[in-house]
Prior knowledge:
The protein is mostly beta strands. It has no helices and 10 strands.
Amino acid sequence: QVQLVESGGGxxxxxxxLRLSCAASGIIFNGMGxxxxxxxxxxxxxARISTGGITNYADSVKGRFTISRDNxxxxxxxxxxxxxxxxxxxxxxATWSGSVWGQGTQVTVSS
Length: 111
């Protein structure tokens, strides 16, 4: 069964941290990405990581977020530090091609 399952979202205060996880099954674990969609906005790319570990980030999260992967566990992570209210969104992981998406996990940054 092909699926991506995200976890780790929640409510956090501004300046706080969260780590999202995305476990993949039924796919070849190649490049992966994290996306987010805030209310009333289009879905946007947050970070991507290639099969070889090359990463790129949206300008809005550079220096605060880190994407990583554990190939032995078929899992990709998104470490989010110094969170801001504007980071509030549903976060999705997806394959590099965008052919497979997870169900999303809500991240809310609020005091």
